[in-house]
Design a protein that fits this description.
InterPro entries: NAD(P)-bd_dom_sf, Sc_DH/Rdtase_CS, SDR_fam. One of its GO terms (molecular function) is quinone binding. It comes from Pleurotus eryngii (Boletus of the steppes). This is Acetoin reductase family protein. It is a single chain. The longest helix has 29 residues. The chain has 2 domains: 212 residues, Rossmann fold; 38 residues, no CATH class. By secondary structure, the protein is of the alpha/beta class. The protein starts with 12 loop residues before the first strand and ends in a 7-residue tail after the last strand. Strand 2, helix 2 and strand 3 form a beta-alpha-beta unit. It contains 8 helices and 7 strands, in the order βαβαβαβαβαβαααβ. Strands 3-2-1-4-5-6-7 form a 7-stranded parallel beta sheet, with helices on both faces. 46% of the residues lie in helices and 11% in strands.
């Protein structure tokens, strides 16, 4: 499943979770372009998409024929799956320098209409999953003794609560606190911990938010998304590539003194 070559210590290694589509896919492509060997993770149902992304990354390596990419399916909500993701990455790619804990899910709905089951399922991915990725990536980095970069997926909803998004917004507030605490704990090991906190991004997830609000407000499909664009300072929405560019900087040597930060890439007016 991995088709990896023998490890080369000259290349830095990055894990990206939620890599099958959207932000995760864009981040994986960017970091591979930056010269990282990459380990891609998503749920087992998305294994085909992960395999196709591995093929695309290897095909795009060009003259850099030693560029390596593997995929390791599993749920970030399951500790054994996360541990296996980190262990396989270290074993097959020769180490771990960057963890991008990108996997996340969203849920629209009023508090009164949110079930305990839906709440717990969202928290299992967004909060427990982020915690497990931070924990096991840091353990591996500390063991290696060469520092590292950990990056989490927060949101503008982790800085300000929004109606109809109590579960999602509160989970991102949790990621915010976890990131700032982890930065304090792991700084002495040369590990930085930051998160990106974007506004509206053109992804499948935004389409689901649009569908919810269209139905609730009696709008035409796409009309709610258009209102977001009209309120944006630059009159346009973010793309996955915009966030991938930000992550590329966060894990670069130029960001070595930045830690505990939530970098907001927002199109909204302040």
């Amino acid at each position: 499943m991995s088709n990896s070559s023998s490890p080369s210590q000259s290349n830095r290694v990055a894990i990206i979770t939620g890599a099958a589509q959207g932000l995760g896919r864009a981040i994986a492509l960017r970091l591979a372009s930056d010269g990282f060997d990459v380990a891609l993770n998503d749920i087992p149902a998305k294994s085909t998409a992960l395999e196709e992304l591995v093929t695309e990354i290897k095909a795009g390596a060009g003259t850099n024929s030693d560029r390596r990419a593997i995929f390791v399916p599993g749920s970030v909500a399951d500790e054994e799956d996360v541990k296996e993701l980190v262990d396989r990455t270290v074993r097959e790619l020769g180490g771990l320098d960057v963890m991008v804990s990108n996997a996340g899910v969203a849920l629209n709905g009023l508090i009164a209409n949110t079930s305990v089951e839906d709440w717990d399922a969202l928290y299992a991915v967004n909060v427990r999953g982020t915690f497990l990725c931070y924990k096991h990536a840091a353990n591996a980095m500390i063991k290696q003794g060469r520092g590292g970069r950990i990056v989490g997926a927060c949101s503008i909803a982790g800085k300000k609560g929004f109606p109809d998004s109590s579960a999602y917004s509160s989970s991102k507030f949790a990621v915010r606190g976890l990131t700032q605490s982890a930065a304090q704990e792991y700084g002495k090991y040369g590990i930085t911990v930051n998160a990106y906190a974007p506004g509206s991004i053109v992804t499948e997830l935004l389409g689901k938010f649009d569908a919810y609000n269209v139905k609730k407000q009696g709008l035409e499909p796409g009309q709610w998304t258009e209102t977001l664009k009209n309120r944006a300072a630059l009159r346009k929405l973010l793309t996955p590539t915009d966030i991938a560019n930000l992550v590329s900087f966060m894990v670069s040597k130029d960001a070595s003194f930045i830690t505990g930060e939530l970098s907001t890439s927002s199109t909204a007016k302040v």
